[in-house]
Structures are given as structure tokens and as C-alpha cells.
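Long-time lurker. I teach an intro course on protein structure, and each term I like to show students one example going from raw sequence to a predicted 3D structure in C-alpha cell notation. This year I'd like something fresh instead of my usual example. Would anyone be willing to generate the C-alpha cells for the chain below so I can use it in lecture? Attribution to the forum is fine with me.
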Amino acid sequence: MKFIFWGRDPDWRAKLARICVACEVFCFLYDEVMPTYYAHSENERGDWNPLRLHLGGVAERARGFAEAFGAGEGAFLGGLLHDLGKYGDLFQERLKGREKGLDHWSIGASVCLERYRSSEIAMAIQGHHLGLQWWDRDELRKLLPLELEGNVPGGRRLTGDRGVLLDRFRADGLTLPEGVARTPPDAKSAAAMLDLRMLFSALTDADYLATEEHFDEAAARMREPAAELRPGVAAEVLDRYLQVLAAGTDSSSAVAGLRHDLLEACRAAATGAPGLFTLTAPTGAGKTLSTLAFALRHAEENALRRLVVVMPFLSIIDQTARVYREALAEMGDGERYFLEHHSLAIEAVDGEGQDARLRGMLAQNWDAPVIITTSVQFFESLFSNSPAACRKLHRLAGSVIVFDEVQTLPLKVVLPTLATLSHLAARYRSSVVFSTATQPAFRHLDEQVRRYCTNGWQPRELAPEELRLFERARRVRVEWPQRGERVGWGELAAQFEGLSQVLCIVNLKRHARDLFHVLKPQWGEDVFHLSTAMCPKHRGVVLAGVRKRLEEGKRCALVATQCVEAGVDLDFPAAFRALGPLDAVAQAAGRCNRNGKLETGVLRVFRPEDEGYPAGVYQQAADLTGVLLNREEGISIDDPAAFEEYFRMLYGITKLEDRELREAVLTKHFPNVREHYRIIEQDSVNAVVTYDRERYEELAEEAGRKRLSRGWVMRARPYAVSCFRREVAGAMVAPVLLKDGAESSDWFLYLFDKHYDPGTGLCIPKELEYLEA
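-- Reply from a regular --
Happy to contribute to a lecture. Here you go:
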């Protein structure tokens, strides 16, 4: 088809372009060829990506994502303007390899700020390559037309004059809206930052997907069709599974009755409106499946679209994922329905099959109805400023988000975390569930949380008090140490005599190693060790072996640090626990007589002669437990009121806020928030160890050939041990090189095989103890 324009209408280019876009035809001009501007260079088919198609496609995608939370028009505008600078001649030259050092994003942010007075949309545009920056009036002023030229970050150059760029934009058949209907961001800092991140997420995910569609059409086709939660169907599938499970249980009738009552309470509570919830129930009460039942029925009742499960430790994520997959096996859709996003699951992505590739792609933006992930992955994305980390966040709108063992959340990040989750529930129609046997007294922080968001923290409890869950769940008798009583490792080992299966949890890795070696002559191959001195892959193998021995009734002694406590499904008839935080003691009790097979299990709490604790809040909590233990009335782990008192006292003696993080949140400085918000202390490094020599060699070879990459990091994590950062001894580790040839400060290859013990993991000799925890 040929269009010929004989007249000299000044808007002829725009009119022609709109006809071309509508008809999807190529245009041939009679007297002059209309220039084509490109967003991306040629793909493997030799096709270039027209800029008008890219901008229009990103705008529509972003609007579709953001309509879930009422920000569709703002996201659409962001999509239209995010690559406005690519209309510049300099950028078109860059696509041909003739230019570099250009800024194609700031001009669109500047137009948005000048014309629409929307700082949040402007910042989302500015950040879609750089990451979100400082949301500050003086910083935003640098985007205004008169100041932009001298304030382009990183010494880059703008790609052209804004008037010329806008003329070309209009000539390409694109039109900016007259105005944008939007909900202003919340006035409080943490809430406002979430509002911007959600808009930013919609824009960046749309941009990533549009770019993928151009360069990798096969990948784009693989994403379709997306699976849906179908919560009503899933709830019926779960009900059938639970019926079969109840019929074949080997738990006592008392435990079975407890689990049934909790399940029914969660089902009944599911009819409520979205919001904040807690589920406080004793260990072994069936919280995992009860929260799943709640989530599915709640999603059906409120038209929610996704379930996200957040776990604190890799040691428990595999067992939870296995339960979910078994319970919802009838739902089909394979990897499209159930997505695991954590380092152990990423191992499976390191393959060549279509399923492996699909898992990796879906993990990028959480495009699945059921997602299970780690606290580190979830929270450090929620408080990030980078496009890659934030692109998944828009999926959280209209979701049920279940946090397991939330007492593990570091106290220094609690206030901005609670504020952000509160706003997520209030503004984005999500439901947040905190599930644990030792529920922190977060509701008493409501007033402090309101400094960061409008709604504060006032959750609803799913398990009514009249169920008397903790009273009915008393399956363990706790024997506390006498005042001043201390016990050595040899004396403690003697107390294991006559026991065929026993668990002992200590506070430090060196304590676990010492006791393991004391027990080794007596127990031989029947004693096992578990701590974070072992890489995640190693810990998983040990846990599987211990579970198998317990099920088969074989002799088994497990010495572990607190990594075995929260949520790990183990059932020992007898347990020992070094005196520590009260919630840790209660969690240890949850690994004893878990299924009620004995009339009463016994947990013996002891103070080791070589007493010691991890520094910081852990030691403060352990000291507080000791103080409470010495009171005349003693202490109980079966009384939720005791934990409320304990946590309130702990908040009173503990520094709840990190000064630098607080300042970054209150001033809405996105890069600084990302730097200071850490679930795991930042003074640690990752050492890839030789637990699996073949895998170690593969990772070392790949690191030398391709340097450090996101994919390499994900594949390396299952074989890495996290260690405190000290002064690096070059003879012991080799730093992994970054792509620019510089040495990584966070990732190392551990060089000595003999320092990784097959029983106890990484043990650095004292004279080389620069890394040791």
C-alpha cells in the first residue's frame, strides 16, 4: 500500500505516522522519506526495533501492570517518556557503535517533571537505568530544563534538544496525554518509597519484557500463557489432600485434634477483608497447611491473584516447598504454577531444558501464581533501588504474603519493614500473614511504625484464644538449669547415654564442633553436625539423612546451632538446648515430641562451662532470658503472654533502629536505603568451598573464564559458606574477578581442601582465622 501526501500540512508527519501505526503498513513517501528512529539495534533476525513501537509497547504493558493498584495512567506516561532521549541523533549513532557516554533517560524525566509536576513518575523514568535516586526537592530541581544540561550524572551527554526530541516523538505518531490522574504518594517516608517502587516496578518490568521481545522472541513466547491462581479450585484440591493426610497420620489424637481446630479457624477467618494478620500457634500444630488453606480461601473471597511464601532459612525452604507441591499437585501447569526463587532452586535453572529456562525467566519478575522465596530475596528486593530487583514488586499487589518464623527478622530493620508491609496491605489490597509459634510483640510498636506510614501495625489474629492451642500442645517438659549451674562437654555427652535419638542445640559454631568431636568416639557414624559452617547443599544432605534415621527408628545424635530451630521439621524424643533467647528455647522444644508420639518429651536447658553467644541482639535476648529465669515465678514457653512480655522487654533494652538506615528512609534516599537495609550483616563474605570438588572446579573455571555474573552467584550460593569479613589472607582464598578485572570484595574461592571437614564443614585454623565467625 502506498500513501502519497501532496500538500504541505505542517503536521503531515504525525498524521502519516498515526495512519501507519493503525494500519501496520510500510510507508513510502512521494517526495521525501520519513526517517525511522530506533530503540534497539538489530536482533538475530536482522530486524531493528522502531522506537515508536518500543515506547508504545512499554507504555501499554506498564499501564496493564499498574492498573492493579490504580496507577495505570502514570505508568503509561512513564512508558511513553522513558526513552525519549533515544530520538536524538547521538543515540542513533550509538546504536551503530559510533557514540558512547550518553544519557537517554533524563530528558524524559525532565519533560515529565516540567509538564506534569509528577516527581514520582519523573524519578521512575530517571531510574530505569540508573536505579532510583534521592527523592529530594533540590535533587529534582536538577531535572528542570534550565539546570539539566549541567547536571547530567556520570559525566554523560544528553542526546539532543528537547524540542527536537518532542517533535520527532509527535512525528512518530505518539501523543502525550493532557493530564494524568494519579493517587499522590503517601506523606510518610517508607510508604511513599513503596508507592514509587511499585510504579517503578511496573515500568521497568514492562521495559525488560519489551526488550526481551525484540532480542529473544522465543523467550517472549515461552512466557505465554501465564498461569492463574484459581484459588477456588486450588482450595478444593487442598481439601482432598488434607483428607488423605488426616487418614494416614501417625500423630497422636491430641495433635491431630489440635491441627484440625487450627485448620478450621484459618478457614473461618479467610472470609475477612485483606489486611494484616498474625497466626500464633505452637510448633507442630500444622501452621504450614493451615496458612495455605487460609490463603487460598482468602484469595477466592477477595479476588486476590497470587500467593507468596517467605521463609527465613534455606534449611526449611525445601521442606515447605515440598509440602506445597504435594498439596497442590493436581493444579498442573508445572513450573508456571509454582515458582521457587532461592539459590538452591536456581541450581536447577543451570540447565539446558525448556523447563529450566522457563524457571529462570519467571523468577526475574515473579510471573507465577504461587511463589516461595527467602527473607533475603523478598526484603532486599522490597527495599532495593535497582531495576532488576524491583521489577517483580508490582506482582505483590493483590496478593497473600505469608511470612514464616517472622521472629527471625533483625530488629534494626523492623520499623521500616512493618511500615512498608502495612502500606502494602492498605494501599495495594494485599494480605500479610505473620506465622510463628513465638509471635513478636510488634503491635506494641504501632506508634513508632506510624512515623514511617499512616496505618501503623495492628494485625488480626487468625487463631482465637478460646482454642487454647498452647495449653493443649504441652508435649514437652522443660528442665531449666539451677542458678550458677554449668556443664562441660564431656559431662553433657555422658547425659546422652541411654538415649537412642537425641538433639542438642548450642549457640556457637565452635561449640557445635567441640561437642561433635567429644561425641564422635561414643556415637561413631551415628552422630551428625549441622551449622552454617557447612554450605547449604551440605546442610540439606545432612538434614535428609537425619530425617530418614528418625523415621526408621535408627540411632541418631544431632549437634546443631540455632540454624536447625525455626521451622525445621524434626521430631526427636529428647532434646538439649544451651540457654539462649526465650524464643530460641521454645523453637528447640518444637523439635522434641513434635508429633505427640510420647506422653511427654523432655527438653533440658543447660549452661555450658565455655559459655558464649553471638554478639548483639542475640546475646541481649539470652541475658534477658536468664533474668526472667531467675524470677521467683520462673518462666514458661507454653504461654503466649510470656512471649509478649519477653519481646516488650527486649524492645526496651535493644536498639530498634539503625541510625543510617533510619536517616536514609526518612529522607527517601533510595541508594542509601539499599546499602543499609540488610537481613544478613554486611560484614560477611562468601567463600565457595570444596564440599563438592567437581562443582567447585566448574565454578572456579567459569569464574576465570566469564568473571563474576548474577548467574554465577546464584549457582555458587549452594556451595558457599558465609563468613565474617576480617583482614584477607591471600594464601587462603582467591577473590573472584569482576567483569572489569577488579577483585570482588564479597566472593572468594576457598583454596584449601583440608579446611572443609565432611562432618563439620569449614574450620579455619586459628592462625588463619581472618574469616571465622
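Some talking points for your students: The two ends are 73 Å apart (CA to CA). Residues 189-215 form the longest helix (27 residues).
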